[in-house]
Design goal:
258 residues; alpha/beta; globular
Length: 258
């Protein structure tokens, strides 16, 4: 899962900058990780470098949450299993940005939060359950004069910010699942597309390391001893591990190769 946090006053500036660059590069239609090829690599690098310029300037904060398959959930009810995705999404929205720390002047100002969610791969009932859970979270936020005022679904094909996040998330999935090592069974070599995606991943990784030295793609980003950094930091990863789970070594890469 991936999300970007932006001040309402900056949205038009950010969207205009990204859409103008897309137009300059003749990137018509939706840009996304699955479309990365050798022919389009340089254009995608330009787009993602601009996106990270906006992150480094403090206008965008990005959070990515992932889970390792080797951690197997224990004792879940059928309802919890059926609603697993929406439950994970709830924790991502609620906790990944440290929203409870976003208002440092609660006695002077109120902070309103709107969520714009890409089309969720779950039923309408699950979507409504997620939205209701987030609105109930307002009771906890109210003590800091923070309120979730809006939760709407959007079409990422029409929103360039979401498209750039798809590229970052896709690159992380590419690396974490060793897709960069896949070779053609006939030639024994990696395809041009795989090599292009690896090059783009390295550009993204370098940009992240400019923000966070020693960044490790596969672990949760440290809050450096200050829990409010969950809100303050510009870029974070969260390796989600449920406390109701156990580690199955046979599901790890090393375990599967034994």
């Amino acid at each position: 899962m991936v999300g970007a946090l932006i001040n309402l006053s900056d949205i038009n500036l950010i969207e205009n900058a990204l859409n103008n660059r897309k137009e300059e590069l003749n990137l018509n239609g939706e840009i996304k990780w699955t479309k990365v090829t050798d022919n389009y690599l340089d254009k995608y690098i330009e787009m993602i470098n601009l996106f990270f310029e906006l992150i480094k300037s403090g206008k965008i904060k990005v959070r990515i949450m992932f889970a390792q398959n080797a951690f197997v959930s224990d004792g879940l009810t059928k309802k919890q299993t059926d609603n697993e995705y929406s439950i994970l999404y709830y924790y991502f929205l609620k906790d990944s940005f440290g929203l409870r720390f976003c208002n440092d002047t609660p006695f002077k100002n109120k902070v309103n939060i709107s969520f714009y969610l890409d089309d969720l791969p779950c039923s309408e009932e699950q979507k409504n359950g997620l939205k209701n859970s987030m609105f109930r979270y307002n009771y906890e936020l109210q003590q800091s004069n923070i309120e979730i005022t809006e939760i709407v679904e959007i079409d990422s094909k029409k929103h360039v910010i979401q498209q750039c996040m798809d590229i970052i998330l896709g690159s992380m999935n590419f690396k974490l699942n060793d897709f960069d090592k896949i070779k053609d069974e006939t030639t024994g070599k990696r395809s041009k597309r795989t090599i292009a995606k690896e090059k783009l991943y390295k550009v993204i990784n370098k940009n992240i390391r400019d923000i966070r030295r020693g960044f490790n793609v596969g672990v949760s980003t440290s809050n450096d001893g200050d829990v409010t950094n969950i809100w303050k930091q510009l870029y974070r990863h969260w390796n989600f591990i449920s406390k109701y789970s156990h580690f199955d070594r046979t599901l790890t890469k090393k375990g599967k190769n034994k």
